[in-house]
Amino acid sequence: MRSTPPSIHRAQANLKKKLQEGTILSWTVVHHPPEGFPSEPRIIGLIELEDGTKVAGQLIVNRQLSLAIGMHVTPRMRLSQVTADGLRSYDIAYEVPVHQDVKQEFPGYLLALTGPSGVGKTTVSILLSTKVGSYVERVPILTTRPPKASDEDEYIHVTTEEFLNLKRNDELAASTSIPSSDEKRWYGYRKKDIEAIWSKKKIPIVITEMGLLQGLSSTLGRRSILSFGLLPPGSSKRQMLSSLLHRLRERGRDTEKQIADRLKNAEEDLKFFEDQKDLFDHLIINDELEAVVESLSGHVLKVAKA
Amino acid sequence: MEEAIDAAIENATCTALDIDMVVVANMLGEATNDQAHLGAMAASLLPHQPPALRAEAACASGAVALHTACAMLESGKAETVLVVGVEKMTDVPGSVIASALMGAADAEKDSPSGLTFPGIFGLITNRYMFEHGLTRERLNAVSARHHKNAVSNPFAQFRKEIPAEAISASPKVADPLCMLDCSPISDGAAAVILSTKHESPLKIIASQLTTDALSLCDRQTVTSFAATKDAMVAALQEADITRDQIDCIELHDCFSIAAIISLEDMGFALPGEGINLYTNHESQITINASGGLKACGHPVAATGIKQMIDIAKQLKTSEKTYGLTHNFGGAAATCGIHILEHA
């Protein structure tokens, strides 16, 4: 590493930002540190700071303590290296306190409803909000696709640039891109929207798809997600697809071409349900609307009262 | 480099004089040999001194050079392009190489902590084990398979079988990664000739290049690489084939964990299940039949081009139709995917 006075000076300006407590996302022991650093093995952590930014930093560890992902760390100013011409450069290292239990973050529950296009997710969610509306609230979807007349207030429209900025700043709980004919369309959920719902003591609901569900599960932790898969009626894949086709046609919102595309996606979605069973807590067949809503509200009330 | 270029010309249906452009992939010339300006140097090896340029994107330099060559062919700027990747890494001490390779990471966010490249992948591996429950023992299968594959490859740096237990018993480099999880420091060169004018049974039907945040600190997840995912989707679309039609792949296993994550990101395995393609012997596709970066060696900028040569050889001998190369730089901050079709 070539540390020159200007580069060290620049780095100093950012030190203050790194002076925060944080949590270990991962760690490693570099057995042969680069030139300029002390030669003994160096423990380095990838740390998520309190403001959500991530840093790579040296970990100061008591020898008896075994390190674990999820541990809490405190910042300390430390001499990092002495350059060939004797310039001493300081950096923030993170100390792992001796006594601590590994905190498993549990931010709260989120209810996710996933299913192929046309299965009736929107209908179910509307019925659900009339039934247990005081306990649940929908998380708005952030999207770069242009507004349509049929949109309800579920979407927040942003430009691609704005979206990617949010993504870069780690303000999204999940994001996914879906290629369309002319451009890539982005969809996502903002962390602050979810947190706002939690702070009202309500349960956030997302009507979502596979990519976003996976994203949410890695950001919030699988345990936080009450995940329901909604399947069309039918005992075989073919029957399921055909009942979807009927619903999409009845709905009359799409052209035949769009319906064909949606069905193609649905086929992949159905495969996902089989492959990724662990992402779902309950799979519900949407043959009788009443029963589905009844069962979902039951789960909501159980969680809300817990 | 001369040897690789001569071999490429010898195997081609054209002559040296048909080459109207040279693209050289190289990352570390300045650090290892005080040599920049490799375009003119490579062009000097040809009788007619054609125009030349150098491409750099860390370990993905090879893929970037190929992509550049494809763009030149498509634009009509050139009709026959020599693409050569070269790296000479053993002339300088390991510490010089280690810090030069850190140039592939973020010099302000990653390097000041004292991280090395094995360190970065150590962080990734540890997190992956935490999220997906991969064990150290199961991870051994990756390097063991690559070494086994290399036995029959005369161009590999290490043509020796290594038992799985020996991998985790080798010295620790960056926990939980051991020496035998890491691709070695190598010298090497590879060259191919791409042409829109001269016939060949092999055709590049997709050339895609993607990028991601340079620093791990700026990513949402470190156990999956968005650049690989994006490149794969775009490459399949460009080639207009499905994943199942691909028969063999050469993927970027700079570290054992990278092979697993890449298989998942390319959709050949579900998240957390990439290792099954190594522990399970009946997988559908052939992965790194050459021995990969681990056993063939990883002369960084030559790798992406060497992968294409290996896929070409495999398609020719197996008479299968589609093969894919996957080459990334840094922690997949640049990713290049190429798909080859054999007629």
List the helices and strands and how they pair.
The complex is a heterodimer of chains A (306) and B (343).
Chain A: H1 5-18, E1 22-30, E2 42-49, E3 54-61, E4 72-82, E5 88-96, E6 110-114, H2 121-132, E7 136-138, E8 141-143, E9 155-157, H3 160-168, E10 172-179, E11 184-190, H4 191-199, E12 203-208, H5 210-220, E13 225-231, H6 237-251, H7 256-275, E14 282-285, H8 289-305
Parallel strand pairs in A: 3-5, 6-12, 6-13, 7-12, 8-9, 13-14
Antiparallel strand pairs in A: 1-2, 1-4, 2-3, 4-5, 8-11, 10-11
Helix pairs in contact in A: 2-8, 6-7
Chain B: H1 2-11, E1 21-25, H2 29-33, H3 38-43, E2 52-55, H4 61-75, E3 80-88, H5 94-101, H6 117-132, H7 136-150, H8 164-169, E4 172-174, E5 177-178, E6 187-195, E7 202-211, H9 226-239, E8 246-250, H10 256-265, H11 276-279, E9 286-287, H12 292-296, H13 300-318, E10 322-329, E11 334-342
Parallel strand pairs in B: 1-2, 1-3, 8-9, 8-10
Antiparallel strand pairs in B: 3-6, 4-5, 7-11, 10-11
Helix pairs in contact in B: 4-13, 7-10
Descriptive account of the structure:
Chain A is an alpha/beta fold and 306 residues long. Helices cover 35% and strands 30% of the residues of chain A. Chain A has 8 helices and 14 strands. Chain A has helices at 5-18, 121-132, 160-168, 191-199, 210-220, 237-251, 256-275, 289-305, and strands at residues 22-30, 42-49, 54-61, 72-82, 88-96, 110-114, 136-138, 141-143, 155-157, 172-179, 184-190, 203-208, 225-231, 282-285. Chain A has a 5-stranded mixed beta barrel with strand order 1-2-3-5-4. In chain A, strands 7-12-6-13-14 form a 5-stranded parallel beta sheet, with helices on both faces. Chain A is elongated and about 75 Å long. The mean pLDDT of chain A is 83. With 343 residues, chain B is α/β, with parallel strands linked by helices. Chain B has a domain at 2-91 and 187-193: Peroxisomal Thiolase, Chain A, domain 1 (3-Layer(aba) Sandwich). Helix content of chain B is 39%, strand content 19%. Chain B has helices at 2-11, 29-33, 38-43, 61-75, 94-101, 117-132, 136-150, 164-169, 226-239, 256-265, 276-279, 292-296, 300-318; strands at 21-25, 52-55, 80-88, 172-174, 177-178, 187-195, 202-211, 246-250, 286-287, 322-329, 334-342. In chain B, strands 7-11-10-8-9 form a 5-stranded mixed beta sheet, sandwiched between helices. In chain B, strands 2-1-3-6 form a 4-stranded mixed beta sheet, with helices on both faces. In chain B, strands 4-5 form a two-stranded antiparallel sheet. Chain B is globular and about 55 Å long. Classes of the chains: A alpha/beta (306), B alpha/beta (343). The interface between A and B is large, with 42 and 45 residues.
